[in-house]
Every structure is written in structure tokens, then in C-alpha cells.
Write a structure and sequence with these properties.
Oligomer: heterodimer
Number of domains of chain A: 1
Number of helices of chain A: 3
Radius of gyration of chain A: 17 Å
InterPro entries (chain A): NADH_UbQ_OxRdtase_chain4L/K, NUOK/Mnh_C1-like
Shape of chain B: globular
CATH class of chain A: Mainly Alpha
Number of helices of chain B: 25
Strand order of the largest sheet of chain B: 1-2
Shape of chain A: elongated
Structural class of chain A: mainly alpha
CATH topology of chain A: Helix Hairpins
Membrane topology (chain A): Multi-pass membrane protein
Largest sheet of chain B: 2 strands, antiparallel
Order of helices and strands of chain A: HHH
Subunit structure (chain A): NDH-1 is composed of 14 different subunits. Subunits NuoA, H, J, K, L, M, N constitute the membrane sector of the complex.
Structural class of chain B: mainly alpha
Largest sheet of chain A: none
Subcellular location (chain A): Cell membrane; Membrane
Protein name (chain A): NADH-quinone oxidoreductase subunit K
Distance between the termini of chain A: 54 Å
Number of strands of chain B: 2
Chain lengths: ~100, ~650
């Protein structure tokens, strides 16, 4: 199968993720869209690695996963504390630095 | 002996420092300390004079180099003194008359609670004036020049609780500033032309410089002299300066400081000799001032202001003589010295009269004082005879020589200058006779002291009650003795100097001398002077001696009224300079508001407006930040792709 198709898929996933980040208000959905964009990038890395016969891309994909896992921990904690203080999961409600 | 020169300046400077910083515990002895240090300065001067007399005529210049003030490559400013015959003459005059006036002030200022400060200022003045005449370069001279200006300011405004005295002090300071600017420009021109401002190299190489540059330097020096010596057009401060205590008027505004301009011109003789135009302007300034001062002196009823007009006029004679070049330098200085004696004596006499008359200054309220103040009458009378040039007294020898020298300039100028000097002699005789008659002769026209409101306006030393008639009495010894000494000088100094050309031989090695070619003989000039003198005295007698003097001044002719207002000098200054300056500043303020502030405020407003708009982007919505980030990234990528495609 032609590896370029994976690239098309990666672009499609990234676009969906980016559009979700820009359009949706729910923090959880936003967060999932960010994950989607990260995984789109991972897919692109792996596809390129395959195309160029070079393992660097695959190694970077592992790094990305580690960073994404860390990000999930911090991000979810923030979301939970936001929800506790504001009783809402909408990002637009958290537009001020005070309550 | 050379090492003593610095002590001449140091003694009074020490006095000023101690008296001004010493505080109240010196109040009881401060005046004695000040007088002692002034006398010490005179003593050192006399010792140096004796030493100088023992040397040959060409070997008399003494120098002392104290230290280098500003040693920079190509710019050497030294604290160094030069004592030659010219400086020596001034040193003796300044410290001698200065000491006498210190003694006089002990009595005159006795009731003033700020007497210690007064003596501190007097000592400061002596130090600055001695520095001025002893400096061996123009920069150090400038230091002394500013120093005497400061002392003059402090002493004119000594009774600063009187608004008129405070204003007069400021006026004197401001007008002098114009002249000082002339001196500083002259020094800068000298530095660019000669590369130095020490007397010796500048004056030695003056002959090799272009006439245009010499004329420029000469005119700037003349401007400086006009400011300090109250010559037209910078004369307006001297009359108001009489607000100061009378000893100050005698020392600073008659005998010494106001003659600094004459010293400057004579000292810079080599520059003026190479610039005939500057010389002619100097002579014209002198001639105009001698008439101006004389006319003002005729109209004033305030005894000190009449004497101030006379001072202006006599210094006009000196400047005229200095403007004649080597024909006149010696006689300018000779008249300066004799004038120092008789004018200081006259002012001290006026102070003594005021002392006895409840500080009244209006001569119309004097009259008949000769019986009550005999010593003052005799000393003032001798000063009077000396200043009008009565044969045999000081003024006769010195003024006569100036008139003769003016004629000797030759050509039409010589005739005009000579005639003006003769006319001035006649007017001098008139106004001095007027002062004499109104003060000491005629009937008593005494008035009770002013009431309480006005009493706040007179000197604090007065010690009299409002509404009390004056009781004229002779002044204490400390005041009469200096007057007697100065009267001796007024009588004998001129003859001593002139007979056998003693003064001429003494100063000639410094100033140079040429006899000139007078179109009329010396005897004719003397006789003509005597004739106009008699006319002046006779007219004054007819107007003020034969007829009683009214207590309130009559309206008088147009000229009299103008002369009472100092020939409209202040009105002229007000209309031209003050109003002009106000208009100029107002237009500058307008430009500042509209143009300068416009640019500055406009910049600030546009930056502010832009920030206001940019602030709206910072709205706190995470998704709008995400849009900008996304948009920015998209633009960057698009641009990168575009660049690679090209």
C-alpha cells in the first residue's frame, strides 16, 4: 500500500482536530481534539519514517506519546479543578483570571 | 617680596570667610576684625610699594605664580598675579580707601544688627577687587570681575527688607550681566586668536593681529566696561544702586568697583591701540556719558542720586581719556585716583549729613547745615572744590589734563570731544554748587521725620521716632576721621601727582605715553576751563544761592522732568527691552505649546490609540488565542512554501 495515503489520513485527522479545537466549547472535547492532532502528527512521523527508511521518525513518535501522556495528567487535573470552581466545562466561561 | 602679593588678596578673603561663617559669637568684634584685615592688606600694599620704588623703572613688575588652575593641553589657566605700576596704583587706592571706609562703617552701621555680615561683604568685595587688578590673565580677572559684581549685589540689597533695595540689587546684577557677557566673549575671542589669555603674550602679539579682530575684541571689552562702569547704554543701574548703605556707595559705586571698566580698557591698551574704530567708539561713549550723568546730576533732589549722576559723569571723563589712546591712558588713571579720593569723601560727607538728619536724603529738606556739622561741611566743601576743578586742588590737575588730551586728539573729533569735556566741566560746576548750596547754605528747610507707615521704609539704623524734628549733629570720630583723611587726598593728591609729572613718569612704562599735538596751548585750555567753571558756579548761585529753595520741587522744564526720570532710560529699557522680551517669550511659549507639544502629544496619543485597539485582542478566550496561533502558523507555512516555490 502506498505510504502517501497515510499522510493524507494524518492531514485529515489533524484538520479535524484543529477544527474541533477552534469550534467546540466543551473542555473535554477540546482536550480530545488536541490528542487527535498529536496522534495525526505521530502518524505522519511514522509514515515519513517508513518512506525514508529511517527510524528517527518512529523514535520521535514514542517521545510524543510520553509527552502526550504527561500532558493528559496535567490537563485533566486542570479541567477537573476548573469544573469544581466554575461548575461548567465550557472554555469560554474561563475567560477571566478571577472568579 | 613677590610672595607677599597673594597675601593682599588672602587677608580680606580670610576676613570674609571668618565673618560670614563665624556666626553670632563674632557680632561684638567682627567689625574690628574686618577693619584690621583691610588695614593689613593696605600695609602689605605699602610695603610692596616701597620695594617697587627702590627698583629701576623697567624692573618694577613683580610676579607670583600660585598654582595651575586648569592645566589642560593647549589651555593653561593659572592662578598667578602680576603687580606692576598700574596694579600698584589700584592696590593702594582700593585698600587705602577701603580701609578708611571700613573705619567709617564702624560708626555708620553701629545700630545695625547685621553689622558683622556687612563687614564680611565689604571684605569679600576688597578681596575680589584686589584679585581683579592683580590677575595676570584675563580669566582670573574675570573671576575678580564676577566677585565684585556679587559683592555689589549683596551690598546694594543689604537692607533687603526694603523692596526698593532688593529690586535695585537685582537690577544692578542683571545689567552687569550684559556687560559680563561682553567680557566673556572678548576672552573667548582672545583664546581663539592668540591661543592664550595671559596679559603678556596677548598684549605683546596684539600688534601682529588683524585690525578687524582687534576691533571686535575691543568693542566687547568696551561693552564689559560699560556694564561695570555704568556707561551709556548700560548706565541705568547706578542711580538705583544708591539704595545700598552710604559707605557702599562711597567705596563700590564711586571710588573703586565702577572704575574697573577704566582699568580694563587701560590694561588692554595694546588691543585698543591697534583698533582706532574701537577707540573712537570708546571716546564717544565716554563723552556721551559725561554729559548724560551731568544732566541727570543737575535735576536730582536726592543727594546720593545727584552724586551718582556725578560719578557717572566723572567716569565718562575717564573712559573718554582711555579712548584717546596713549595720549590719555595716564590721565584716565590719574583722574580715577583723584576721583577716588574726592568722590569717596563726598559720599561719606553725604552719609554723615544723612546720619544727622534722620536719614533724610532729599536736599530740599536740608539747608543751613554748615553751622551744625562743621567737620562735614569743611571736608565736603574741599571735596566739592576738588571735583569742580578749583585751581590747586586735585580735580583741577586731573580734569584739566583730560580736556587738554581730548583737544590733542586732533582733527574734528578732537574739537568735538574737547568741547564736550569743557561743557561737562561747566555742568559739573553747576550741579555740585547746587548740591553744596542746597545742603549747607540757605535757610533751614528741615521737616519732621516721616510717620509710622513711611518709617518702616527707612533704614533700621535710624533710631528716631516718627514725627520728630531732626537734630543735626556732628558724626562720631570714627566717621569724621576718614572724611578728613580723604579731604587731604582731595586737596593734595592732584598737585602731588601732576607737579613734576610724577604720575606720568610712574605709569608711562606700563601704559605708554605720547604728547599729541594740541591745537590750542595748555594755558588756553586751563583758562577756558576756569571760565566755564566760573559760569557754572555763577548760574548755580543765581538759581539756588540768591533765591530761597522751595521745599517741594517745582514742575520744571521738559528737560528737568526728563532728567529727574534719569533721561527716560528706564522707560526706554522698559518699552524696548522688557516689552520686547515679553513679546518674544510669549511667542516662544505659543510655539512651544502648538508645535513642540503638538508633536510630543500627537505621538503619545497615536501610540495610546493603537494600544487601545491591540488590547481588545487580549480577551481571555482560549479559543480566540488558538485561532491567532493557527492563523499565524498557517501564514508562516504558506509563506515558506511560497518561498520554496519561487
Amino acid at each position: 500500500m502506498n505510504p502517501v495515503n497515510y499522510l493524507y489520513l494524518a492531514a485529515l485527522l489533524f484538520t479535524i482536530g484543529a477544527a474541533g479545537v477552534l469550534i467546540r466549547r466543551n473542555t473535554i472535547v477540546l482536550f480530545m481534539c488536541v490528542e487527535l492532532m498529536l496522534n495525526a502528527c505521530n502518524l505522519a512521523f511514522v509514515a515519513f519514517s517508513r518512506m525514508h527508511g529511517n527510524l528517527d521518525g518512529q523514535i520521535i513518535a514514542f517521545f510524543t506519546m510520553v509527552v502526550a501522556a504527561a500532558e493528559v495528567v496535567v490537563g485533566l487535573a486542570i479541567i477537573v479543578s476548573l469544573f469544581r470552581t466554575r461548575h461548567s466545562a465550557s472554555v469560554d466561561d474561563a475567560s477571566l483570571m478571577k472568579l | 617680596m613677590e610672595n607677599l602679593i597673594a597675601l593682599l588678596v588672602a587677608a580680606p578673603l580670610l576676613g570674609a570667610a571668618v565673618l560670614l561663617c563665624g556666626g553670632r559669637r563674632l557680632d561684638r568684634a567682627g567689625h574690628w576684625l574686618g577693619t584690621l584685615l583691610a588695614a593689613a592688606s593696605f600695609g602689605i600694599g605699602a610695603a610692596l610699594f616701597a620695594d617697587m620704588l627702590g627698583r629701576g623703572a623697567d624692573d618694577r613688575t613683580m610676579r607670583q605664580h600660585l598654582y595651575s588652575w586648569i592645566p589642560v593641553e593647549g589651555f593653561q589657566a593659572d592662578i598667578a598675579f602680576q603687580l606692576d605700576q598700574l596694579s600698584m596704583t589700584f592696590v593702594l587706592l582700593i585698600s587705602g580707601v577701603g580701609t578708611l571706609i571700613h573705619v567709617y562703617s564702624i560708626g555708620y552701621m553701629e545700630h545695625d544688627e547685621r553689622r558683622r555680615r556687612f563687614f564680611g561683604y565689604l571684605n569679600l568685595f576688597l578681596a575680589a577687587m584686589l584679585l581683579l587688578v592683580l590677575a595676570d590673565n584675563y580669566l582670573l580677572l574675570y573671576v575678580g570681575w564676577e566677585g565684585v559684581g556679587l559683592a555689589s549685589y549683596l551690598l546694594i540689597g543689604f537692607w533687603q527688607h526694603k523692596p526698593s533695595a532688593a529690586t535695585a540689587a537685582k537690577k544692578a546684577f542683571l545689567v552687569n550681566r550684559v556687560g559680563d557677557m561682553g567680557l566673556s566673549i572678548a576672552i573667548m575671542l582672545m583664546f581663539t586668536t592668540f591661543g592664550t589669555f595671559a596679559f603678556r603674550p596677548v598684549l605683546a602679539s596684539a600688534g601682529e593681529t588683524s585690525e578687524g579682530m582687534l576691533t571686535a575684541i575691543g568693542l566687547m571689552l568696551l561693552l564689559a566696561a560699560c556694564g561695570k562702569s555704568a556707561q551709556v547704554p548700560l548706565q541705568s543701574w547706578l542711580g538705583d544702586a544708591m539704595e545700598g548703605p552710604t559707605p557702599v556707595s562711597a567705596l563700590i559705586h564711586a571710588a573703586t568697583m565702577v572704575t574697573a571698566g577704566v582699568y580694563l580698557i587701560v590694561r588692554s591698551g595694546a588691543i585698543f591701540n591697534g583698533a582706532p574704530d574701537a577707540q573712537l567708539v570708546t571716546a564717544i561713549v565716554g563723552a556721551v556719558t559725561l554729559l548724560f550723568g551731568a544732566v541727570v546730576g543737575c535735576a536730582k533732589d536726592d543727594i546720593k542720586k545727584a552724586l551718582a549722576g556725578s560719578t557717572m559723569s566723572q567716569i565718562g571723563y575717564m573712559v573718554l581719556a582711555a579712548g584717546l589712546g596713549p595720549i590719555g591712558y595716564v590721565f584716565a588713571i590719574m583722574h580715577l585716583v583723584t576721583h577716588g579720593f574726592f568722590k569717596a569723601g563726598l559720599f561719606l560727607g553725604a552719609g554723615s549729613v544723612m546720619h544727622g538728619m534722620n536719614d533724610e536724603v532729599d536736599m530740599r529738606k536740608y539747608g543751613g547745615l554748615r553751622r551744625y556739622m562743621p567737620v562735614t561741611f569743611v571736608t565736603f566743601g574741599l571735596g566739592y572744590l576738588a571735583i569742580i576743578g578749583f585751581p590747586g586742588l586735585s580735580g583741577f590737575f586731573s580734569k584739566d589734563r583730560i580736556i587738554e588730551a581730548a583737544f590733542a586728539k586732533g582733527g574734528t573729533e578732537g574739537w568735538i570731544l574737547g568741547s564736550v569735556a569743557l561743557l561737562g566741566a561747566a555742568i559739573t560746576a553747576f550741579y555740585m554748587t547746587r548740591v553744596m548750596l542746597m545742603t549747607f547754605f540757605g535757610e533751614k528747610r528741615w521737616q519732621p521725620a516721616p510717620d509710622a507707615d513711611a518709617a518702616a521704609d527707612v533704614e533700621p539704623s535710624a533710631g528716631h521716632r516718627p514725627g520728630e524734628m531732626p537734630h543735626p549733629h556732628e558724626s562720631p570720630k570714627s566717621m569724621t576721621v576718614p572724611m578728613i583723611v580723604l579731604a587731604f587726598g582731595s586737596v593734595f593728591a592732584g598737585g602731588f601727582f601732576a607737579i613734576g609729572d610724577r604720575f606720568l613718569n610712574w605709569l608711562e612704562p606700563v601704559t605708554g605715553y605720547e604728547h599729541g599735538h594740541p591745537p590750542v596751548s595748555a594755558l588756553t585750555v586751563t583758562l577756558a576751563t576756569m571760565a566755564v567753571l566760573a559760569v557754572g558756579v555763577a548760574i548755580a548761585w543765581a538759581m539756588y544761592g540768591r533765591r530761597p529753595v522751595p521745599v517741594t520741587a517745582p514742575r520744571g522744564s521738559l528737560l528737568t522732568r526728563a532728567a529727574r526720570r534719569d533721561l527716560l532710560q528706564d522707560d526706554f529699557n522698559h518699552v524696548v527691552l522688557v516689552r520686547g522680551g515679553e513679546h518674544l517669550t510669549r511667542s516662544l511659549v505659543y510655539v512651544d505649546h502648538s508645535l513642540v507639544d503638538g508633536v510630543v502629544n500627537g505621538t503619545a496619543a497615536s501610540v495610546g490609540g493603537l494600544s487601545g485597539r491591540l488590547r481588545k485582542l487580549q480577551n481571555g478566550y482560549a479559543r480566540s488565542y488558538a485561532v491567532s496561533m493557527f492563523g499565524g502558523t498557517a501564514i508562516l507555512i504558506a509563506a515558506t512554501l511560497l518561498m520554496r516555490a519561487v
